[in-house]
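Query form — protein Carboxypeptidase

QUESTION: What is the three-dimensional structure of this chain?
INPUT:
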Amino acid sequence: MRRVLLASCIINSLISFSSVATQITPPSAGSLQLSSEFAKPVFINDVILPPIKPWSGSSETLLRSADQSWSTPFEQNGLTTSPNYDETHQWITNLVDNSELLTQVSIGKSPQGRDIWMVVASETGATTAAELSQSNKPTVLVQAGIHSGEIDGKDAGMMLLRDITQGNKEQLLDKVNLLFVPILSVDAHERSSEFNRVNQRGPVDMGWRTNARNLNLNRDYAKLDTLELQHMIRAINIWQPDLYIDVHVTDGIDYQYDVTFGYNVKEGYSPASFEWLETYYRPEIESALSAQGHIPGKLIFAIDNTDLSKGLSYWNPSPRFSNGYGDARHLPTILIENHSLKPFKQRVLGTYVMLEQTLKTVAKHGTKLKAAIYEDKYQHPQRIPLTWETVEQPGWDFKGIGYSLEQSEISGNEVVRWDGQPKLYPNLTVMGNTQPAINTLRPKYYYVPAQWQQVIERLSIHGVRMTTLTKAKTVKVAQYQFSNPVFNAKDYEGRQRVNATSNKVKFETTLPVGTVEISTNQPLGDLAILLLEPQSADSFFQWGFFNSIFTRTEYIEDYAVEPMAATMLAENEALASEFALALKDEDFANDPKARLRWFYERSPYYDNQYMKYPVLRSN
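ANSWER: The structure tokens for Carboxypeptidase are given below.
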């Protein structure tokens, strides 16, 4: 009966909300009541979220009052809102116009025609990538709003830029440059509502997760189907950052950490960068966050959101994600996942602390960072993992929140009820996909036929170096031949993904003029391998760029196969023996179409490109 009453009170409370309210009234007597030790409701969805305790930290001293000069829209509006696209651009433009340290550039336009702005912050006031490069300082690129509802990085970055240019933190740029993209998914940012992210505590209005074409930008780093990601990757190639930070807000379980962050794994494609991040970056960031009243943690996912005893997941991301892409192209990339159940104010301040300390850490250890990147770019290992197996990792002590399971009379299932009380879960099991499964030997070259223009274009956007043959070239190559293709039953991110059994065949061939030759002996050689090897999960093949090779376009009529087959059997004893052996398969023997197709596939009339991968590799 208590659970029915609880559900009724929640529903009644939600119905009573004004559609434009930014504050909510605590439930009336007889409805859901929170203990005084828990925070009062602030956002419209607080009443249906787990209880939290009030937070206060030293980082609150970073805030300016609403009436102070250069207060941000976030500070002007009670620390619960985030400005829209126009308000953000206007405020940043005013800041840029009043500082010799800042420049603002558009990295490109969105599908709906909005500029994606990037602020360049440097001691010299550099206005171009060439000028920035002349400083010989490491460069940090901070990107907010790839998921536009997860916008903490925008407001934190605005505060930090304000304090650098209009406060007392100009020295942060003495030994490091900063690139700041306040909103990447600009169209989704304007699809804003107080009802967009029910599991997240603010801001009041939040943008949409996917872009105007309903594509998830943080699944697009490999295939580059979206304009937004194409612009971002071009910007990375032009401005050449040494550290890339992608700011998110997480979903999932409740826990004590308010700022979690992760990056590539030691076993991945950039081991030297991993060592720098573990040795220098994480300790200094976690120390700064802790000193300011925040609780930092590793990037955290539960294996089962309803049962923490099953342990945690350690993630080795593939190149479709920002941090997996950074691993593949040897650009150290930090994925920040602030905790969605912590209030917006707390998350913004935690992000500010992390970004400020990032500039200090990179300034202090920038030479070692550049050396690590150089080592990763030019190690060129001969064996490249394409897929990974999950194995057990060292256990973690997990700063969680207590919970119980209750039988729901709404869903009929057991549901988690977080109680808001801190609880330590010692030495939890951790599983991670860190053991190589399928490997490939590094080829010297790949060859892409000129007609596969979309693939060539995407490789070019990634920055992969390519040469177009101006005369025919005879080479010994290997080609994948496929069988048993399996297509996803549903589209994923606008594409029909495919997997297939492959067999590698070696031969000599003459490549025509216009063929694109790609050497793997280059800084982005590992990325090229992961994009072009069919067994790689984020290869162009598996993303469906080559699906047309599975379409048969030429056929032969039965009346033509019959006499041709008779001639083939009469003139080729080995073929006759092979056919006799095939007839021992009862299913084949009883399938007239299969028997005729057997001869067609062995005739000179058969399509010799059917189910063959057009990209060749040469050792």
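ADDITIONAL NOTE: The chain is about 30% helix and 25% strand.
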